[in-house]
Amino acid sequence: MNKSSGVQSTGLxxxxxxxxxxxxxxxxxxxxxxxxSFHIAQGEIVTLLGANxxxxxxxxxxxxxxIKPSQGKISYRNEIISKLSPDxxxxxxxxxxxxxxxxxLNLSVFENLDLGxxxxxxxxxxxxxxxxxxxxFPRLGERQNQNAGTLSGGEQQMLAIGRALMGHPExxxxxxxxxxxxxxxxEKIFEIIxxxxxxxxxxxxxxxxxxxxxxxxxRGVVLEAGNLVTQGTAQMLxxxxxxxxxxxxx
Length: 250
What we know:
The protein has helices spanning 56-64, 86-91, 109-116, 126-136, 138-142, 153-165, 183-198, 210-216, 234-238, 241-247; strands spanning 16-27, 30-41, 45-49, 71-76, 79-80, 94-97, 171-175, 202-206, 219-224, 227-233. By secondary structure, the protein is of the alpha/beta class. A hairpin with a 2-residue loop joins strand 4 (71-76) and strand 5 (79-80).
């Protein structure tokens, strides 16, 4: 993995693809996130960092329409999407590979990928899209007729990402893609994230492994107990003593 590529922003457009403005979310009486604001520019990898319970997954769920903000707004390409349904948001080419993978274990690898393509803008590109996923994840091609439940954890994570890619996302939301995986598989997953970003994909990455996430990201947003603590370039966060001590294990 190229450890320096993630901290550079040269050549990126500053056009805001997604903007989260003073968003708060409640689960019943419990406030999960409090007036969080950040944006993602076209072509960036932005990583959300924080301990368990910090609110990272809640942010993704709000963007995906799975939970509605009680305050604030979320805009995508200058359109407010925070009141849209999840299927309407997916049709705007915002796709998510959720924490826990969320694949259909009783369906084959091919059938899972086929389901991911339901929002693709042109059904005629299905075979091409499928081949591109198999190029990124050769194991999925080798196992395309197997039930997803028979795959290893790493292969299931590859399938979750591949299924999201079949929808031709302009913004890809990845929730803990390295969770529970062996180190060599984690390395492979992060290499794939970098590659699809280099090919033009904008990515919002939630990741417990803060050090690896910052090494491939352009910018980071740090959450703590539902509050936004700080945000900035990956290089700045990597060089901040407080961040290194609190989130990088130093």
